[in-house]
Amino acid sequence: MAVHRGPVRDHATGPRFFIGLMSGTSADGIDAALVHFDETAGMPHGALVAGRTYAWAADLRERLVGIGQGGRVDSLDEVGTLDVRLGEAFAEAALALLAEVGVDADAITAIGSHGQTLRHRPAGAAFDGQHPFTMQLGDGNVIAERTGIATVADFRRRDVAAGGQGAPLVPAFHAAVLHDGGEDRAALNLGGIGNLTLLPAAGVVRGFDTGPANALMDAWCQRHFAQAFDHDGKLAARGTVDAGLLERLLDEPWFALPPPRSTGREQFHLDWVDARLRGGEGAEDVQATLLELTAVTVSQALRREQPDTRRVLACGGGVRNGALMARIAQLLPGVEMVSTAAFGLDPDYVEAMAFAWLARQTLAGAPGNLPAVTGARGPRVLGTVYPA
Prior knowledge:
Blueprint lengths: L15 E7 L7 E9 L4 E12 L3 H11 L7 H26 L6 E6 L2 E6 L11 E5 L2 H8 L3 E3 L3 H5 L9 H8 L6 E6 L2 E7 L6 E7 L1 H12 L8 H5 L4 H8 L19 H5 L8 H23 L5 E5 L6 H10 L4 E4 L10 H14 L7 H4 L9 E3 L2
Parallel strand pairs: 1-4, 4-7, 8-11, 11-12
Antiparallel strand pairs: 1-2, 2-3, 5-6, 7-13, 8-9, 9-10
Helix pairs in contact: 2-3, 6-10, 8-10, 10-11
């Protein structure tokens, strides 16, 4: 991906630089964003200086996807090793970004690292129903040690401990940068999992996961077409939606849950799809049906939860899937679908920017969650700080 360049000013003169690191449900790479905050210049919510995506090592990504889809971890030794390997990969991504844009590590106030989710079992999804948890790997100690930069990580577990879902966390950032008092808006993130942030002109900001977005489409595409993803939805466009399969997919009880709700590969993976196949379906037809599943679940959720929405601002990798964006727009007549790029936010790096912003919140002692989104008992300062 191209690097996006912006003004870089001396850290001592006022602006504060942060790096946000994000790897989502698809585990297709580490998004690294260099963000600069300057209260005096009217940029308290940050401006992207540079962004880049770094691929995971192939063997590491294969293992992460396998575990994320419900695969067993071999041992505690494997968990510990993965934690360190992921920390090293996140550190390398941060250092590579700085080297590319010519910024010294000592100019960075902190790194905010989401980590890679190994398992997400929030309230309502825990195995025993009593001990919800979420686990992201990518040791913050390793990141801080390798980069020499203070690191904030492990953002989600405090919210879960407070009775919340621990996700999504990006709606707080969406509210800070995309809210408009003149219209009801929604921010739509089309990552591995889709999630909506509801931004009413007046009233409480809410947000929740809508279900699978790219994760299932990508996994099916890789299995049947030996491609990492369906470029612009062209494979799906060659197929026909299987109405029976779509009905069986939509019959999943999770879709009927009210917000707050969150999910991941533990819920939506290829075994889940396979269990609903009848046999003989064409690969392109299933690809088309999975695209339709994403479009339908997004549009139904938005109409149910904020029917007066006038504009949807989309980000995440799914924005590059023209067929998906067009289908969501068809299912939402009267609603303008635009990329966040139209509002100055590169859709590829919104989530990474959000974790830079969340790190800044943590260092300021300010809450990072929205209880109306996650269901937590109240606002909480999120994350653990690992000093430089």
